[in-house]
Amino acid sequence: MSVLRRQRASLAHLGQRIPTKVLGLVVLAVLALVGFFAFNRARILITVGSGETVKAEFARDYKLEPFKSVVKVSGVKVGDVTGVKETDRHTALVSMKIDGSVLRKLGDQPSAAVRPTLLVGGAYYVELTHGGPGGGFGAGRTIPVERTSVPVELDQVLSAITPDAQKSIPRTVERLDATLRNDGQEELRKIITDAPDTLEPAGVVLSAARGTRPDTDLTGVVTGLQHTAAALTKQDGQLDSIITSLATTSSALADERRPLAQTVADLPQTLQTTRAGLADLDPTLDKLTTTAQAFRPAARQLDPVLAKLDPVLERTLPVATDLRILLQDARPLVDRLVPTAQDANGVLTDVRGPVLERLNGPIVQTVLAPWHGTGVYKGGGNDHLLYQELGYWFSHGDDVFKFHDSNGAAGRLMAGVGVNSVGGTATVLPLEQYLESLGLQQPLGPQEGTRQGAPGLIPPPAAGPDAGALGKLVTSLDLPLVSRSFP
Fold first, then answer.
1. What is the predicted pLDDT for the residue at 120?
2. What confidence category does residue 424 fall into, taking pLDDT thresholds of 50, 70 and 90?
3. What is the DSSP-derived secondary structure letter of residue 205?
4. Which has the closest alpha carbon to 69: 28, 14, 127, 27?
5. How confident is the model at residue 94 (pLDDT cuts 50, 70, 90)?
6. 401 by DSSP, 3-state: which?
7. Between the CA atoms of 255, 257, 263 and 267, what dihedral angle is there, to the nearest 10 degrees?
8. Which of 111, 101, 110, 103 is nearest to 136 (CA)?
9. Domain boundaries along the sequence of the chain
């Protein structure tokens, strides 16, 4: 109690010392400051608050009030309008104070639009939209009038409607009312009834669309789609050309769907085979690496050879030039050889088949085979081939008829000793047996009693008194003849 009494006494003493007028002035000043702050609270808070100032130029001043109108991005407030100024071009330059983090997400070419809070008007605000591939919009920059827009009032829309359209609007409303009164009302109820069940999965889809980082994933997807759309629409008709080409490609794939499906079905096996082939290629590549390393000294030694080859190539150049002229002159000859080659192709086609088969078969086998007698000729013949015996025959014939005189060539008979005369006894071969040893005459048949010549040959002279002169001569001389047998 003593303390309270002392405080009251000190206040009373202070009140006695301060004049009443001064105290009244202080109270009035405090009241004036409180009133000024109360009426300019928004201006003061926005001025002293944090943020970056940017500007946007609109076609006209459209109901924006400084420190009352707000700035939004996707419906969320991000700043305030701090000033509206008319320019020399009769446009409105609007100053806005926006959070710096928001500016970094708008891109380097954002757009701005004045929008009403309600459909029929009310308070207006500035809507900022992301634009451009850049990272952000710098502070102090101005959005040009080309990227800004102002709303269109309902009366402007109605004034643009033609009188006929104005007359048709009531009819349209009447028909809409009739539709809602009939089945449309019931269908609308069904939509409202089914909407909750549909909206719940839609909410899950939208939540998933936001990604694992809701603050950046969806924004990045939208930004990427915007860049894609900007690239597709950069040139007039480009998107139409892409869609037309896509339709053509789809049609071609549809026409070849079976081979494509087979290719896709065979693709795993193909990949396995390719993998195995690549695995088998590894040793070859290793050997190639070793070979390449060993080839480096040879490549170094190849440089002088190439240096010496240059003069040779220079000397060869005139020859190649003359060869070009020769080839040009030979062109008519080649053109004429074309029909000849075609005719020769026909000839070779005719030769191919039975002719070559006969030539490669019996004829070649006969020429390249030795002859050994069978039956009554058993023991005759040798291992010499037919072409060798023919060579011997022509050589001996040439030796027999090598003597010439004025009457022409003269043949001679030669006596010799064969392998069957080693024991000292020579075997005399009459002409008939000699021809038989050559395979040109058949021996006496067991029943015919006559001599038969080889098929297609003139029968040999018979032995005895009716024998020919050559046969009698050989028989009378009784000389051994050395012969070679061949088929």
1. 57
2. very low
3. H
4. 127
5. very high
6. coil
7. 140
8. 103
9. 2-39, 50-160, 163-209, 222-255, 266-352, 366-415+425-477
